[in-house]
Amino acid sequence: MLPASRGAVKDRAPRFAPRKPIVINSDDAFDAALDYRDQGFCVIPGIPGRKQPRLYPHRLWTELPTSEELIEWWNRWPKTDVLCALGLVSNLFGVQVFGVDGHQALLDVLGGKMPVAPQFTLADGPPHYFTMLFRHPKLKTQSLMPSWHEKINLLGRNAYLILPPSRDWKGRRFRWARRRSLLDLDPPQLPGPILDAMEQCAGSPGMPKQPTGKLTSNPLQDEYRPLFQELRSACQQVCDDFVRRMAGKVPLTGIKVSEITVEMEPSGK
To answer: Helix, strand or coil for residue 126?
Structure first.
């Protein structure tokens, strides 16, 4: 069992404040999660090897978890990964590179010089597979942004990113590059060339765009709209029946909607 408390922790510690960090390349994911949280990063437990959260606390898109919540979660799931919710709360934006082609495409956009930013990769993993972290840009982003190359992923708001010392599906640990952990290095601003490349991709034919106004009608959507409405009505009826049954069994205690969480079992059911 984990300790009942690790002392008082402010709900929002100063991001990137100087401190003596715990060595987060160790095998203790719980200590790493507390360190990340203390530095202002929104972390939650993840299902090992699946890059999927064990639960979905909706309020964490607007505020950090408390240290007591982390203790409760890791007591419930001792063997778990550390996931970080990217976006405005953590103030993080991720750039994932897959292989030599992706690395070269990133170098081409950046003019041949890689920025100094927090970076991690797989221990004993293939070369040129890594993730870099930057400050979230001052624009609307989505979990997977349009990219100029198929071997580069751009991760924004609502994306979950696995952090060291978690493992991949083969059991290999993620490791920070030397002196480039989130506790050692302040994430820099997202380079301008990457922002320019994102804007060009969003405006290119065949690339997904951010919705800017009223959406036009889609024939395929119109064809299946009655089915969707029927399914939604059926789901709403099931939910209403469940609430009515539970209302007679569980006393109302003033539970807030923001405190309701949805838990995911490892089976995904």
So the answer is: coil
pLDDT digits (tens, 9 = 90+) for 105-136: 999 999 999 999 999 998 887 878 999 999 99
Confidence check: pLDDT of 222 > 70: no
Phi-psi region for residue 239, left (φ > 0), alpha (ψ -120 to 50) or beta? alpha
CA-wise closest residue to 266 among 61, 84, 45: 45
Q: CB count, 10 Å around CB of 3?
A: 9
The full set of domain ranges for the chain reads 1-211
- The pair of three-digit structure tokens given for residue 112, joined into one six-digit string: 């041949």
**Among residues of the chain, what percentage have pLDDT more than 70?**
65
Handedness of CA 192, 122, 129, 203 (dihedral sign): negative
pLDDT at 269: 42
DSSP per-residue string spanning 226-245? HHHHHHHHHHHHHHHHHHHH
Mean pLDDT across 193-209 = 69
- According to DSSP, the β-strands at 52-53 and 81-85 are unpaired
Provide the whole-model pTM. Answer: 0.66
Q: Inform me whether the pLDDT recorded for 146 exceeds 90.
A: no
DSSP 257: G
